[in-house]
Write a structure and sequence with these properties.
about 140 residues, alpha/beta, about 45% helix
Amino acid sequence: MDKFLQAAIEEAKKGLDEGGIPIGSVIVHNGKIIGRGHNKRVQEGSVVLHGEMDALENAGRQSAKVYQECTLYTTLSPCSMCSGTILLYGIPKVIIGENKTFMGEEEHLKSRGVKVEVVNNQECIDIMESFIKNKPELWNEDIGV
């Protein structure tokens, strides 16, 4: 398995262990992780700290050129907010662990020139299916249902 997707999965598991939503993400620049994060809406009472947003926050302030050379890895298809942020910072490539449990804005990303690759990783699918089954109210809150 891709080591960067594995790092995103490790982040998702941290979120689950903390009582949160198991979605993780890493941002890679020139073969190095510059930001990693996981969904912290529950842990921090945040409305915006999805996995991708937390990874960007933890990458810190970067020049536009750096973001334009990055690949973002995420365990789950990015929602509207996270996809908008990917577009805002010009991140050219997104690797998605799975989109079976939730289909985000992949078509919008593609329509704006982002290279989107879905790997349908079974571990990502299993983590989300289990979470959605066990905590449907928390999942629905996270996706705005």
